[in-house]
Amino acid sequence: MASLKHYLNSIIGEAMAEATQSESCNANVITSSKPGFGDYQANGIMSEAKRRGMKPRDLAEQVIISLKQSLPSLIDRLEIGGPGFINIFLSDSEIKKRATRAIQEPTLLIPPAEVPIKVAVDYSSPNLAKEMHVGHLRGTIIGDAIVRVLERRGHTVIRQNHVGDWGTQFGMLITYMEEAVGADSDLPNALSDLESFYRDAKQRFDDDPAFAERARLSVVKLQSGDKDYLSAWEIFIDESLRHCEAVYEALDVTLTRNDLDAESRYNNDLSVIIEDLQKTDLLAESKGAKCVFLPEFSGKDGEPLPLIVQKSDGGYLYSTTDLAAIRLRHKMKIQRALYVVDARQSLHFQQVFAVARAAGFSGQDLSLEHISYGTMMGKDGRPFRTRSGDTVKLAELLEEAKQRAYDLVTEKNPTLPDSQRRDIAERVGIGAVKYADLSKSRTSDYIFDWSTMLSFDGNTAPYLLYAYARIKSILRKAPERSYDSIQSLSKPEERALCLKILQLGEIIEAVDRDCMPNQLCNYLYELSGLFMKFYENCPILKGESSQTESRLALCRLTAETLQQGLELLGITPLEQM
């Protein structure tokens, strides 16, 4: 069952093509802003008429005549509005029929992609030398929501956690680990606070020249494949990954060790990248470093802006590793590669993508997309930190979220058993943190505010979770029957809610295309608001038998829609709050 918007775009686009003797036309169907303008509007008439030197209303009339020859059952009527828009009014009987089918087969709420493809999503990507902090939150949960949506649409998704597990800092850490952790010591205990361990090692490196020299030698031995140093490195990486996995489990993020796409994977390919860039005559030298200069990139003074791929001391950079990763993804026949990385890396990815194209490391059949996101800010408008100015550890932030939610649940419902309050608090607290982020446009910075995200009012996780729990409570009070048929849309609140439910598919199509999870958040918030209007204006359990059954079926479908939407955001709904 195609989404409403997709179906309307298709049939009206065909009618436009027939009216204009064209191969294809874009109907540009959008949701109407006011009920008087219909349920949808076809706005493509305006641009198509302008392109052909026609009056928009004349073209609109031709399109309507063409459609009326075999008007689809979904459409009740068509009207020309304004200078030439086509207002589309949908049939109540078809809305009821589609909704009933969705109750009986809930997977129909989200249609699969017409052409499923192979997609790689690069997200989270912590540096294994340190613990995950709040700077990793957005990339992790935005990436995971996108992955869930893509998989739900039927695409083959390859998660890529491009962790930083290689480089000069690991020589320092291994040397400090060997010195600070004796053979009989408990390594997991010593690494329980990775941040402190890294800070102490860095302090030692800065203060002790002899230690610094041993650390440099450790890097050489590590990169040359010395078995003892590789063994020590593997132990450190393993312990570091345990920290990441604890955070992923708390966040209910779907990344596992099988999804690692570590920097070390590409170590042996970096020199080959340099050689291949040399063969394509793209490589140039600047101040001893090897660079690629492309004409489309220049600095403020107009000077060519280089992409450095090898430092003057022979070391490689993120750009070199990213080029190697692109080439591998091209060989894997991936068709779309998404990089969920902070917006401050925009220029880096523009240059890397351009160089990959110029060097032939990727073809036109691979879409390279930087899915950028802004910064989490504190109330002071600065990047979110502790009161002392330190970076906030992600694990500690999530624990605070659960505790704040527990205090809130205890205040609102103190008679619940403690174990139940703990379970509710975990889902509400983690859900609140995730939703507060996902509900904002990913390209913007946003203010992290506990009071807002844990509020039961407004576009928040607690509000949506409460709406879902309320519907489930209504269904529990109803007689034990399966309410699987929408029989009546006699009140406008019923129709508006039912139509909104059927629009979930087109919202998911948009998230698939644009990678903007906030579109789904806004939809779920609007859906919950329409349910509250329906609840207030349409008696559910006190009407006539057939009316009660129809409205209970609508409640059931609303709950199903909320559940599917929340789970795509990585939030598990609650039956009771």
**Given the C-alpha coordinates, what overall shape results?**
globular
CATH architecture of one domain: 2-Layer Sandwich
Helix content: 40-55%
The total of beta strands comes to 13
Question: CATH homologous superfamily of one domain, by name?
Answer: Arginyl tRNA synthetase N-terminal domain
Describe the structure.
The structure is a single chain. This protein is α/β, with parallel strands linked by helices and 577 residues long. Helix 2 (44-52) crosses helix 3 (56-68), helix 6 crosses helix 9 (209-223) and helix 17 (461-477) runs antiparallel to helix 21. The chain is globular and about 85 Å long. It is built from 21 helices and 13 strands. The mean pLDDT is 91. 53% of the residues lie in helices and 12% in strands. The relative contact order is 0.10. Among the domains are: 4-90, Gyrase A, domain 2 (2-Layer Sandwich); 168-254, no CATH class. A hairpin with a 5-residue loop joins strand 8 (289-298) and strand 9.
